# Entry
Amino acid sequence: MGNLYELIKKSDANQKYLIATVVEGEHSGEKVFVSLEKIVYETGKSSFLKQHIEIILNQLETGLITVDGNRIFCEILQPDKKLVICGAGHVSIPIIKIGLMADFSVSVIEDRYTFANDALRAGANQVICEPFEQGLKKIEGDKNTYFVIVTRGHRYDQICLEGIIKKENAYIGMIGSKVRVKNVKDQLAQKGVNLEKLEKVHTPIGLKIRAETPVEIAISVMAEIVQEKNQKKQSCGYSKEILETLNAAEKLSEKKVMATIISRKGSAPREVGTKMLIYPDGRTVESLGGGCAEADIKIRALSILNSDKAKSELHRVDMTGWQAEEEGMVCGGIIEVFLESVVP
# Structure
C-alpha cells in the first residue's frame, strides 16, 4: 500500500482525501487513508474502519464521530495552499512575506526584471519573469490556489484577470479603486467573460481595515485570504515541514510521536487537525500553540517513547480554572490531543 505520508504528499488538490483514525475505544490506533472513496492505506488487523467505511465517507468536515463505542477522528485533508501574486511592486513584497509566514507556497509573476528580483529577495518560492499573459500559462490553478492581482495598471489587471478567471481557484482578489475595478470588469464582460465569475472576484481586495501603507494593505489582503481559507472545515495539520520530516530517508528510523488536536472547546491556540512531532531528546517539529499546554503534551509523548507497550494515547488538556491560570495556560479552553507512535 506504500508509505502513508508519501501518499499524503502526492495527493491531488482537486480530489477529496480523508484519514480516519480510531482515537478511543477497543480499536484505538487503527487508521485508514481514503482516496477517491477507496481505501489505499490501512493499519490494524480487525478491519474495523473498513467495515464502517460508508459512515466515514459521509463525513464532509474534519471532526469526531462515534461508531460502536469507538471515537473516530476524520480528517478531510487540505493540500498545500498556493498563493499566486501578479505584480511585484511595493504592495506585493509584504504580501509575499506574510504569505510565506502563513505557510503558503508563493509564486510571483512580474514582467520587469528589477522587480522580479525584489520578489526573489523577499523569499518567493517561484518567480516567473515574463509578460503576465505568458507567465499565467505556467500556473495551473486548483481548489487551493489563491490569486492576488496587484499590478501597476488596469491594463495589466485586465490581462491577469482574463487569464485567471478561466482557472480553478479558491480566491481571486484585485487591487484598485472602484472606478478602476469597474472599468476592468466592464471590459471583460464585453469580451464575453462570465458575469457570475466576475462578481465573485474580491474587489477592492482585502478586508476593510482602513489600510494605507503597503504593509497594512498586505495585512488586509492576507486576512481576507485566511478568512476564505478557514471557511472550509479541513485539516491543514500535515504541514510541508511535517511531511518532509516524515518522508526524509535519513529520519525514517528515528522514533517519534505525532500529537494531533482532535477536538477543542472554548478558546484554544490552534485549530483541530494541527499536528506536532516529538522526539525522545525533546526536539519538536511544528507546534500545538506553545506554553504549558504544549509542555504537558510533550511530557506525555516522551512517556510513550520511553515505554515498550504504549503506542497511542488520548490526552485531555484543560486550560480553564485556577490551576490552569496558575500554570500560565491563558487561553481558557479544553483540547483533546491524540498521541501516536510513528512507526518507521
User: Anything to note?
Assistant: The chain has a mean pLDDT of 87. Residues 107 and 126 are 5 Å apart (CA to CA). The chain has three domains: 1-77, 82-229, 236-344.
